[in-house]
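Example 3.2
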Amino acid sequence: MRKTLLALDTDILKPWFDGARVIGVSVSEYIERILEQLVRPFDAACCLEDAIRDRLYLTRGEAELAADRFELHSVDGRLEGHDLPVAVADVIEKGGGRWGVEVDVRFY
């Protein structure tokens, strides 16, 4: 199996360090087990939807690119035969000069 090295904030990982210690496995093995539960396209799409809604962008242009990529990802998944919802993404002003993406998901 191919491995990818990730650099993550260790403060964010504290609950995962604790969980790994409790069950007696490495942190990477523990997180891999959790991520394996997201391998179904629908679950991964839900996580992506949450992530794009929570992200703030410095410019409208960055938010527009993210919205376009999100919509394309949704369409590509359906074309690949995955039972994913169709997503429409709109750019919205979040205040403080920041921009965000609002997602509307439709199940067909």
